[in-house]
Amino acid sequence: MSGRVYLVGAGPGAPDLLTLRAVRLLESADIVFHDALVHPGTLALAARAEKIAVGKRCGRHTTAQRFINRRLIDAAGVHATVVRLKGGDPLLFGRAQEEIDALEAAGIDCVVVPGITAALAASAAVRTSMTRRGLSRNVTFVTPRTGAGEEGHDWAQAVLAADTSAIYMGVGEAVAIAATLVARGASRRLPVMIVENASLPEQRCLAMTLAELGSMRGISGPAIILIGEVYAQGQAASAAGGLPERACAA
Ligand code: SAH
């Protein structure tokens, strides 16, 4: 038997931000391999499927990528519908390409179902467009994180060149991020938003400047750093006491 593997975007967290296609696939899945961050309510949709956590959280690789690839290939040998459920969109910072390449090399049919990426859920949370006429005409999705054995890359250059940036997997090194950007010429007053747990009941939005990002502490959930002049309004609201933290309840 040769089943098909679906790489499905689970969205940022809230189960009702799944696509209808993702829901249909979860309902008909025989087996689901999922990331650590996938919401229990999302997994519950895969009522008849065996569910296997293969997640990586904050750089801790609980299951080596090559092992995940192997398990997907093996599962397609015994199941018709294999779902590989990944947080947000599968094709952004999700190592999906390694899985797609491994499946293709093994001659297994593979289909990708997009999901709402964290940067867009965070943008919705702070009700701020990443693009705006006259202010922002480009957006960069970037991470300072490099995998083991991977060469460093100039993430700061990408942020400095962009009108608006969404930094994934960066909150743990917020202090270093701020220091690097300031050292490379960014304004200390550049507006920053941190959105933690976007789309979930625990969602928090924090408005600050790049200088303040340099002393950021106390974020424990998944969080994204948004940077750019488009966030100046949030900063102003925060300074005036209208905490965006309150304004952005999911
Ligand atoms: N493929 C995912 C990203 C995986 S990398 C996507 O498209 O969203 C994991 C990073 O995504 C986290 O470190 C964090 O920066 C971000 N992230 C994931 N879920 C999030 C959420 N609910 N709120 C804020 N950031 C989130």
Question: How is this structure best described in words?
Answer:
This protein is of the alpha/beta class. It has two domains: 4-113, Cobalt-precorrin-4 Transmethylase, domain 1, CATH 3.40.1010.10; 118-247, Tetrapyrrole methylase, C-terminal domain (Methyltransferase, Cobalt-precorrin-4 Transmethylase, Domain 2, 2-Layer Sandwich). Helix content is 31%, strand content 22%. It has helices spanning 20-28, 40-43, 65-78, 96-105, 118-125, 155-161, 174-183, 210-213, 232-239, 244-247, and strands at residues 4-9, 31-34, 50-53, 56-57, 60-61, 81-86, 109-113, 139-142, 164-167, 191-196, 204-209, 223-228. The strands form three sheets. Strands 3-2-6-1-7 form a five-stranded parallel sheet, sandwiched between helices. It is elongated, with a radius of gyration of 19 Å. Bound molecules: S-adenosyl-L-homocysteine. The site of S-adenosyl-L-homocysteine has 22 residues, from helix 5 and strand 12.
Short précis:
The chain is built from ten helices and twelve strands. By secondary structure, the protein is an alpha/beta fold.
